[in-house]
Amino acid sequence: DIQLTQSPSFLSASVGDRVTIPCRASQGISSYLAWYQQKPGRAPKLLIYAASTLQSGVPSRFSGGGSGTEFTLTISSLQPEDFATYYCQQLNSYPFTFGPGTKVDIK
Amino acid sequence: EVQLLESGGGLVQSGGSLRLSCAASGFTFSSYGMSWVRQAPGKGLEGVSLISGSGGSTYYADSVKGRFTISRDNSKNTLYLQMNGLRAEDTAVYFCAKRLPTSNGLDVWGQGTTVTVSS
Predict the structure, then answer these.
(1) Closest Cβ opposite residue A98 in set B47, B100, B110
(2) pLDDT tens per residue, range A39-82
(3) Inter-chain residue contact A43 with B109, CB threshold 8 Å
(4) Closest CA to B29 of B105, B98, B113, B107
(5) 10 Å Cβ neighbour count for A54?
(6) Looking at beta carbons, which residues of chain A come within 8 Å of B92?
(7) Which residues is B94 bridged to in the sheet?
């Protein structure tokens, strides 16, 4: 199975900061990676698919990059509503594993 | 509006069974693959099962293989997850989700239904 690593597990940042969240795959997955945002008690929300394609309705301050085994989610200017947990998911091969998540909280 | 609404969760004893349902609306249900994803209390996301739009292809995580069965009734726009032989480690919020046409992500999620397995 393909394993996804997200480090750090927790990230403290301030409103207005540029934040980059990494995700590493244990083997190459081309661009078959998605990013989700989840707030407490809520369902996940798709932000990015195919590594860098912004889902409709998602603010342009979110962007994704990378291919192969190294990927990033970047928030260009952190807003109060962005404090949440972010998960990556690989869709290259079964099982479509999720990373363990990175929680972004207020510094 | 595209919407998914899960139901069927509850409290069950270890070894028991539950059937989850996910009612879809606002899109052509039969055209899209669907997934069940679960989240144990305080934990991350785990993909449980997938099914193609026609229902002809299915996939299960090793943790549920042989115990859970995914199915769909396209005439009723409803996705199901039959869960047998439930264990304490199956305790989680279960989400149904719609797959993108390219299968590159899950773009619509339900609100989740809670399954609690008591030992």
Answers:
(1) B47
(2) 999 999 999 999 999 999 999 999 999 999 999 999 999 999 99
(3) yes
(4) B98
(5) 16
(6) none
(7) B38, B113
Q: What is the pLDDT of residues A1-30, one digit of tens each?
A: 899 999 999 999 999 999 999 999 999 999
Contact B104 A99 (CB under 8 A): no
Q: Is B112 on the interface with A (CB under 8 A)?
A: yes
Burial (Cβ within 10 Å: 0-12, 13-18, ≥19) of residue A16 = exposed
Q: What percent of chain B has pLDDT over 90?
A: 96
Q: Is the sign of the CA dihedral A102, B81, A96, B23 positive or negative?
A: negative
By C-alpha distance, the chain A residue nearest B111 is: A43
pLDDT tens digits for range B30-43: 999 999 999 999 99
